[in-house]
Amino acid sequence: MTAKIRIDFQNNRFMSVRLRWGILLFSVVFQVMDVVATTKIAQPHVVLLGDSNTWIGGDDCSDEHGWSKWFKACFQPASCQSFARSGATWSHTPHTVKDTKEYTEVISDNNVVLNQLYRLMERLAKGNTPLPDVIVIAAGTNDAWFADKRPDALQGGVAEAVDKVCRIISRQFPKARVLLLTPIPSAKINEGRITKVGDIIQRCATLAGVECLRLDKVGCIDAAQEKKKYVMTKDGVHTSVYGAKCVGEAVAQYLLTTKIK
Question: pTM, whole model, 2 decimals?
Answer without folding.
Answer: 0.83
